[in-house]
Amino acid sequence: xxxxxxVDVQNDFCPGGALAVPDGDKVVPVINRLxxxxxxxxxxxxxxxxxxxxxxxxxxxCVQETPGAEFHPQLKSxxxxxxxxxxxxxxxxxxxxxxxxxxxxxxxxNSKNVTELYxxxxxxxxxxxxSALDAFRKGFRTFVVTDAVAAVNVKPDDGPKALExxxxxxxxxxxxxxxxxx
Length: 182
Prior knowledge:
alpha/beta, globular, Rossmann fold
């Protein structure tokens, strides 16, 4: 069984948001097309409290119950079966979807007999990277859909370096058109 994990496609990570990923909104149409190929679709959301140590490193973003923390308005979020909230404590960063405090992503995927996890979303060099590496470490055959991710690129080559790190760790990189139809 294969599943799609949509990582943090939230308003604050898209153009005009508090921590905008360049071209972050460009992943939305690709992800929407991908959804038709999966029976199991899950997503993560950054869901920070107003006071978080995370904001010592980053601008205030994705604060719980604010418009910036909501999914991008054009993301077909009604197709998402379960959302995993991360970064919910004042002292945690919550980069990986496996750090979700709302539910355990690994347990949920195992309960659905998922063996392959396809990862898309924002940002390649932070939350996508952390989520994909954790999925691989937890025994899932893990894929990152390279045309469905975008990087923050604090340094200009952070995105490509993150992709290389994931590939070197055993994560498969592919494009959306390379995913077999069900």
